[in-house]
Design brief:
The N and C termini lie far apart (about 40 Å). It is globular, with a radius of gyration of 15 Å. By secondary structure, it is an alpha/beta fold. The protein contains seven helices and seven strands. The protein has one domain: Vaccinia Virus protein VP39 (Rossmann fold). It has a seven-stranded mixed β-sheet with strand order 3-2-1-4-5-7-6, with helices on both faces. The mean pLDDT is about 90.
Amino acid sequence: MLDLALQSSEAAGLPLHSVSPNQGKFLMLLARTVGARAILEIGTLGGYSTIWLARALASGGKVTTLEANPQHAKVALANIACAGLTDRVDLRLGSALDTLPTLNDEAPYDFIFIDADRVNIPNYFTWALKLARQGSLIVVDNVIRRGVVIDDSTSQSLRQFFALAAAERKVTFTAMQTVGIKGHDGFAIALVED
């Protein structure tokens, strides 16, 4: 089902930005490690990482995934249905910055995965902290950017995110480089401790 999700996403013309298979399994293992029953994903794309996260859920759990693009959401919903996981996934269509404030009543989330537009990563991280609990994991994708440091809006946002995370007393935080089929990039991982 995972290969089919990638194939259908590519056939529908979605950008080739899904996590790699080993990264998807890594996310699944992290979510299982914390016994996640409530997972928040910011950025659904074609649902590939959503499927990995839904497979990680403890019994009765739910993935809430946020997607701004209606075409991406349509493809993702079909992929999630094909994987037999519709009952475990709640896809919310709309801008994440508009949707996140509506999730307070559903919080806290045990695991939060941020894989959306890089310019808003600091904002997404700030919301993730509000929607997390002590012991939650927050994972942010694409924080290394092939090791290239250039002065564009994405690099500025990533520097702002790293400064924000490093100064946040509630979390223990690190970044981990990854090298694989997607090239040289990385995850940031924050454990909420307070």
